[in-house]
Every structure is written in structure tokens, then in C-alpha cells.
Amino acid sequence: MNLLDKVWIVPAIMAASFLLILFFGKRAGTKATAGLGIAAVSVCLVFSVVVAGQWINRVNHPPTGEKLAEDIRQANGLTPQTPEAVESEANAATHDAGQTVDQGSSSGSEHGAAATGAAEGESAAAPLAATEQPATPTAEGSTSAEGEHGAEHESVPPVVRTVTWFEIGPIHFELGTLVDGLSAMMLVTVCIISLLVHIYSTEYLHGDVRFTHYYAFLSLFTASMLFYVISSNTLQMLVGWELVGLCSFALIGHWWEEKNNTDAALKAFLTNRVGDMGLIIGVTITFFAAGATSFNVLHINEYALSGGANTTLLLVGALCLFGGVTSKSGQFPLHTWLPDAMAGPTPVSALIHAATMVVAGVYLIARLYAVFFQGLGIGSSSLHYVAFIGGFTTVMGGVLAFVQTDLKKVLAYSTISQLGYMVMALGVGAWTAGVFHLFTHAFFKACLFLGAGSVSHACHHTFDMREMGGLRKHMKSTHATFAIASLALAGIVPLAGFWSKDEILAGAQQGQRNAYTLMLVFGLITAFMTAAYMGRAYWMTFWGEYRGHGTPHESPKVITVPLWVLAICAIFLGFLNFPARFFGLELPSGVTTRFEHFVEPTFAFPQIEHPTFTPWLAVLSTVLAVAGIATAYLYFEKNKGPHGLTHRSGAARAGYTFLENKYYLDTLYTDIIAADTKGPLARAAYWFNQNVLDGIVDGAATVSKKVARFVYRDVDQLVVDGVVNGSGLVSEESGQFLRRMQTGKVQQYAAILFAGVVVLAGVLVFVV
Amino acid sequence: MFGLLVAQNIAFYVIAALIVFGALRVVTCKNLVHAALWLVLVLAGVAGQYILLAAEFVAVTQVLVYLGAIVVLFLFGIMLTRAKTGHDLELDNPTPAKVGAGVIGVLLLGVMGYALWDAWRGQELGDIVVQRTAEVSDSLFSTYLLPFEVISVLLLAALIGAIVLARRD
Amino acid sequence: MLVNQFLFLGAVLFCIGVYGVLARRNAVLVLMSIELVLNAVNINLVAFGAMWHATDPANLSGQVFALFVIAVAAAEVGVGLALVLMIYRNRQSIDLDEVDLLKG
Asked: How distant is the Cα of B91 from the closest Cα of chain A, in angstroms?
């Protein structure tokens, strides 16, 4: 069975699970509810893996001849103004089993009908295929930095299956599925994380009053997200996008008895509405920019690339779409909802606000990349809105993460920062890097969130890091997984985060015409800060003395097993896109850059940048990350007091050594931290450290803390929130004014109605 | 001025005067039961106009349904809501509302009157032929069968709805 | 006879009905006024029906529609009075200006 055609089954299963839980959940009890949810996600995961497998198979054995022509025609599909419009309509009809009779084709069997469609479409499709085929490989060959990879990339068209929803004149509104590497990757990611969250939640929400409600919305969320990622047109994406937002609202406000939570849910919902207006306008504009014939994403991309579209329209469209991205993916200045959204249950935070929903925006850019590429002139610019906002967000989020004492908020700002990273990567033209970071980030960020949940589970449901500390003794699994995920996030080699982060940096450095230097600086600053604030969170939570109440305890297996699964993913998934040349280490090309090979949309997409692995950049980013960890270590221990000396010297030694032997950094660093030794070099460095390094470090920390406070209190809280609150206030005031008209007396309304009738009738009778 | 059919015209104006007077009493009188009785006059007058228009079946239906059923329904409604049988000042809205309603009514009449005068000036009804009940039923059960069935479903729904609403539970 | 005779009668009746709907406070009286409006429409329908019938004897649409209106009016009065009864039961009054739950 070819699941690439029938991928709609996957969201359908989750939707069915949602309905079942909604209607029968209460009666069936919590165990059955959770079981049903988990079973549904498991089935989806299996399907998704099969889909991914079949896609990989398709890339390895690309379709040829008639089948290829058919696929290309399906992908370019229903562009009714072209001569083959009639055939494509006929073809759309054959996919609707009910209409095969009209075709007069011999049988009702799907296969036979499809074959007929192919035969009919062949004559029309052949020239199209002919023009399409040579075009893409040339583009590949000319821009690919590495010849050996460019050669192996072939144009594999995505699998598109659509049915006509309705028609207005020449415009077809379709429902359909689109499977390519990107959607297959998203399917698998969403299903894995959703499955783990489903399992984790059985314990985390054990005994919750609205257990079934929670599981119903988890299912609906998963269904919406899966629906979103396989949408073949922008309208469908809009539907999925909104559904996802709705589920987010319901789940953030899960514990609505407390006003804070409902406020947070409302804030998330309303902030997202702001961006969604942009998205709706953007969808409309791109529709018109692409010839006003189809909402099909491939069509829009192809049209944008072909140069047929008006560049100004594309620019405006891309910026409007980016408005949607700004809110959903927490970009400056619409990021404020994301930290507040931590009011929801922690597994929800992991699933929605770290791993899947918030990347919907990034996915949107990746999906409609041609619009952004052409509209913003990514290939010919050195600075433009998307890249800058991404870069700015990534730094800003990182800075904000320092002043939070709530563990989940640290992670939330970290998420903002990392989303900024992805957006920035897409902005500088490093498509693969951005998407790859999306992929790896999903795993380690989910792991961090679930770890935070596990910690809170142990510490009487607090997330305040000042009430934690010393937990590594009590919670071995949580500690280990949290450490692994933190290191992955910080981008320590060889964990997953390193590879994706490094690719982004390389992309920014080598980018289109080496022009995105500012983005590279942003990226490097963030690399440092990410490590620092994760270090701070890690030490405050797991080291030192326990400062909370009672005795913390390790969470049960239901919680730790998902943690371990994610941690293992965080370790190994980075190797999926192992660079072709890594410090002189060259692996056979069948092993390296697999992610790029399978996920990259080679069909009808712009020339994608393939940055090569750059040793100095990788080293620099790692150095920055380690320095970040060291800074955090110092700063935290300095506040702590008596033990400061030891640790400070250790770090100083690390700092000193790392100037001399940059190639052994991580090993040295680990040894010093682990063994906590004071070597002779440390003593030698003590004076230097006390007077110079310490001052610099303290100064840097103080300044960054002040900057962070300023940004948080004045920019974030005052200006950004002020604007948001102000718009709310204005609408409330106008509502208060208008309500006086609302007397509630039906007869007054009727009087106004009839007076209006008199006026209208008078105008029609006497004037017109 | 009365055209050829003098008798019909006289009958029309007499009945029309009755209808208008009765209608004005319906909307102005201070006694609920009296209002219902004035309504009877209006409805009977309308039935008379139907006969003048040679629409016998509608006239009969008007008498049966309106005079027989609806007015009785109104009287029941009045009794069940225990209105006082004497004069009741609370029946009307305050004077400003009444003035506003009057203005709206007059303006509406002006606009409608002008439109009618403009559109149908001097148009004769033509030779009025009696429209026999058999013809009406033929039309009702052939051309208008579907709306007829829909109306029957509507009546059923209204029946059930009225029972559900009015029953004490 | 002129068509306008009947049409004007209908217009007058209609406007009186509108006045009643707006000026009366008692819900039952408002329903009665609505009956006036419906009857005004019916007069128009039957008058036009007679006019068309004079030229095309097979055309009885006017009467048929008048019948439909009568049926709908009956349903309307039934449901309307049931609603009035409900209001009365809940508030001991059928004054429409006291029913202002829609107030903003």
C-alpha cells in the first residue's frame, strides 16, 4: 500500500480519537481515555514512519516516465488557465470515486481510474515535464557549493493528491495532501513527541478533574498539527493553523479555576489573532500574486520563482505572512504570549510551546519559501526584515532568559530565542539548516520541558528555581536527561543541537554572497548566551543544597522513560545531517547529509544554500558555548559564597587553558568540572583571575543582567505589553460607549428597523 | 370616479372604512378584550374584501382560521395572562415612544403610498372572474405541492413547539 | 375597480399594524398588531392574484400564497402566545419593556 497517497488517514485517526474521547471519555474512565489516546498516536506514529520510509524510498528510486509525468502534473496540478485545465479537472474527478461514472471509464476501481487519468493527461503533461526536468537540476548544479552533492540531488516531485472542494468561476478550491520530505519529517516529529507527551501525561495529570478534556484536546491538537503539515494549499494551512491555536488556548487554560491561567490563555489567543490577521491577508495576497488561480502551495512557489509574480506583491505578501509567523512562533514583538503560556500543564508546554505548535510559523516560511525568497530578495540582500527579526529575537530571548527565576520561563525564553534562530536561518537562505534546527530542537526542548515537569512533580508543583537545588542526588534520571538536553541546546559537540546550530552559523557566514555578517554575530552571541542561561538553570536546579520543602523524589517510570527516549534522540539525531567533511574526516556520501538529501524540496524550489562545514566557526561556537557555561557557573557560585573560590579557580583554569589549547576544550572542561580540581595552573591563574577575568566576568554579568532587566521591565513589560493592553483598553472603552445604545428593548430595535426601512425605501423610491 | 362597478366600489369603501377604523381601535383602545373584539371586525372586513375580489376560498379560510381560531387563541392568551378587564393604562408605551411610532407609521405610509401611486396609477383589476375552490385546490396540490407539505411540517413543528413552551414542568 | 384601492387599503392597514407593534407595550397586543400587518399583506396578495387571474385563468398564485400566509400566521400566533405565556409565568408580567435581558 502506498501511504504517500493516503496520508490523510493520519490526522483522521487523531480526529476520530478526539471525537471518541470527547463523547465517550467520561463514561469510559481515565485509563481507557489515556489508552485510546496513546493507541491512536502510536498508530499515527507507525503510519508516519512508513510514510517517511516510503518517501526515502521515493527519493532513492525516483519515479520515471509516465508515473513521473503524472506526479508532476498532480503537483503543479490545477492551474486552470493552462491548456491542460480540462485534463486536470478530469483527473481530479477520477480521484473522486463517485464521479468515475461520469468519466465513462471502464471500472470504478481507483487504480484503473488513476491510470485512465494518467493516460489522458499524458499529452498535456509531457511538455510540462520536459520544461520542468532540466530546469531544476541546472539550478541545483549552478548554486550547490559542493559538486558531489549537487549531482546526487534529483528532482523528486512531492506527492500531491487533491479533490475539488468547490469552484468559483475558474478558481478551484481544493482539499488535498502534500507529502514531501518536509511534511514527512514533521509528521514523524509531531507523532513521536505527541506520543511521549501522551504517555507522560498519564502520570503528570493523574487524578486531574478534567482528565478526559485534556486528552481530547491533546488528540485534537495532534490532529490539527498533522493536518496542517500535510496541507496542500494555503487555505487548508490556515484552517490547521487556527485549529492549533484553538487547542493551544484550551490547553493553556486547562486549569481555568485560577485567573492567571485564563488570562494567559486569553493573551495567547488574542496575541495570535493579531498575527493571524497578517496571515489571512498574506494568504490572500499570495493567492493574487500567483495569478489568482489556485491556493496550491506548489503553484504559488513555482509562480513566485518563475518571475511571473509582481515583486512588490510578493514582498507585501511575505511580510503579511511573516506577521502570522511573528505571533505563532514568538518572534519580536509578538513573543509575549509564549512565556505566559507556561501557565498550562507542563506536558502541554513541551508539546505545544516548544516542540510543535510554535514551529508552525517556521514551517510556514519553509513551506512558502519561494514567496519569502523572491519577495524579500534573500538571495540578493544583506539585511532584510525576516532575517533581522529572527536575529534580534534570538538575542533578545536569550537575554531575557537570564532574569527568570521560574524554570519553565527560562525554557520559554529559550524557545523564543531558538525560534529566532530558525527564522534567522531561513532568512539568510539556509533552508536546510533552519529546518534541521527545527527538527533537533523539538527533541531536546521537549526533553527539557518534560524534565522541568518532572522536577516540579517532585518539588510540590513549584517551578521556582530558588526553591530547588541539589536535585541531582534525588532524581538521577531527570538530572541526567536534563543535563544531556541542556548540553544539546547549548550546542556542545556531538549532541544534536551542535550540528544544527553549526549549520545555521555556517549558513549565515557563507550565506548568499557572504553578506549576512550581522546575522552571524547575532548567532554567535546567542550561542554564548544559550549556554550561559542553561548553565544557570541547570546549576540552580540540580546543584547546591535543596531549598524547598519536604523530600524530593524521583518520578515514576512513566515520566522517566519518555525523558530518556528524548535524551537519546537529543544525542544521536544530529548525526542525521553529518557534514560531508568534518575536520578532515570524510565519510562516504551515502552516510553524510542524509537529512538534507531527503528533506530538501528539490522540486520547484529556489536554489538552496548548502553551507560547508567550517572548522573555525564550529570551534568558535563551541568555545562560546563553553564560555557561556563557565560564566554561568561563576556567576551562580559567586552569589553562593563560600565555595566560590574553588569553582572560580576551576573555571579560570578552564578559561586560561582554553586560550592555549582550544582543541581539547570540552574534555578539559568536563574534567575540571567533574573532578573539581585545583591544578597548579589554577593557582597561577588566581591573581590574573581575581583582578582581570573576574572583573570582566562580573562586569559582563552585571551589565547583561541590567540590560536584561531593562529590556524585560521597560521594553517588554512597558512598551510591548503597553501596546497590547492599550489596544485592549481602547476596544473596551468604545464598547462601553456603544453599550448605551443597547437598551435591550425589542421595540426600540424594531422602531430603528422601521425607521431604517423608511429611509431606505424613501431613497429607493424618490432618489433612485 | 367609481368606475363601472358602482355597487362593488361602494361596498369596498364601506368595508375599507370599517377595517381602518377597527384597526385604529385595535392599536389604540385601552381594553385588551375590546381590542380583540375590534380585531374581529378588521378580520371580518378583510374577509369581505376577499369576497369582493372573488376569492371565496380564501375568504372562507380567513373566517375559519382567523375569526374561529386565532381570535379565540388571543382571548385565551388574554385570560391566561390575567389582564384586567377594565381600562388599563399600562397597555401602551410612554408618549414619546408613541409619537415616534406614529411618525414612523405616517412616513412609512407616505413612502409606500407614493410608490404605489407611482407604480399602479390607473391600473384596472380587469374582469373579475370567480376563482373556484376546485381550481385553487388543483393549484395547491400540483404546482404548490412541495410548499404545501413544508407548511404542514411547519405547523406540526409549531404545534409541538407551542406545547413544549407552554407546558408546566 | 382599481388595483390601487386594495393596495392603498393594504398599505394603511400595514402602517397601522407597524404603529401598533411599536406603540403597544402589552405583548398580546403586539401580536394582534402583527396580525394586522399579515392581513395587509394578504389583501395585496389576493388583489394581485385577482388581477393576474383576469388575464391568465390558470394562475392562482395569489390565493395560494395568501393561504400559506394564513397557515404561517396561525403557527406564529400559537408559538407567540406560548412564548408570552412563558414570559408571564417567569416574570408575572407581559410588559415588553421589562423584558430587556439583551441590554448591554
From this structure: 14
Distance separating alpha carbons of residues B42 and A445, to the nearest angstrom: 79
Q: Would you state the pLDDT for residue A80?
A: 39
Helical (H) or strand (E) element with A164: strand A159-168
ipTM confidence score: 0.90
Chain-chain contact of A747 with C99 (C-beta, under 8 angstroms): no
Q: At C56, which CATH number? A: 1.10.287.3510
pLDDT in tens, A397-421: 887 777 777 888 888 888 888 899 8
How far apart (Å, rounded) are the C-alpha atoms in residues A91 and A87? Answer: 6
CB contact residues (below 8 A), chain B span 22-61, against chain C: 23-24, 26-27, 32, 35-36, 39, 42-43, 46, 49-50, 52-55, 57-58, 61
CB pair distance less than 8 Å for A744 and C103? yes
Backbone phi, then psi, for A435, in 5-degree steps? Answer: -70, -35
Bridge partners of A179, per DSSP, are A159
Q: Residue A112: which pLDDT band, with cuts at 50, 70 and 90?
A: very low
Q: Helices marked H in A543-692 — which ranges? A: 557-572, 594-599, 615-640, 644-660, 665-675, 680-688
Q: Is C91 on the interface with B (CB under 8 A)?
A: no
Alpha-carbon gap, residue A525 to A628, rounded angstroms? 10
**pLDDT at residue number C43:** 94
pLDDT in tens, C11-57: 999 999 999 999 988 889 999 999 999 999 999 999 999 888 888 88
Phi, psi angles (nearest 5°) of residue A604: 55, 45
CA distances for A479 relative to A353, A454, A560, angstroms: 22, 10, 10
Per-domain residue ranges of chain A? 448-640
- Asked whether residue C68 is domain-assigned, the answer is yes
Domain count, chain C: 1
Please tell me which chains touch C, using 3 or more CB pairs under 8 Å as the contact test: A, B
What is the chain C residue with the closest CA to B164?
Answer: C82
Per-residue DSSP letter, A146: S
pLDDT at A1: 61
Nearest to B16 by CA among B53, B57, B54, B69: B53
Mean pLDDT of A652-670: 36
Asked whether residue C104 is domain-assigned, the answer is no
Best CA proximity match to A497, nearest among A625, A363, A601, A600: A625
Contact C100 A744 (CB under 8 A): yes
Q: Under DSSP, is residue A178 helix (H, G, I), strand (E, B) or coil?
A: strand
The three grid cell numbers given for residue A97, joined into one nine-digit string: 470515486
| Span between the terminal Cα atoms of chain B, in Å | 62
**Domain span including residue C53:** 3-95
Instruction: Please list the residues that pair with C2 across neighbouring strands.
Output: B124
Residue C101 lies in a domain: no
* B106 contacts chain A (CB < 8 A): no
Chain C contacts of A747, Cβ < 8 Å? 21-22, 25, 30, 96-97
Quote the CA–CA distance of A202 and A197 in Å, as a whole number: 9
Given an 8 Å threshold on Cβ–Cβ distance, is C25 in contact with B144?
no
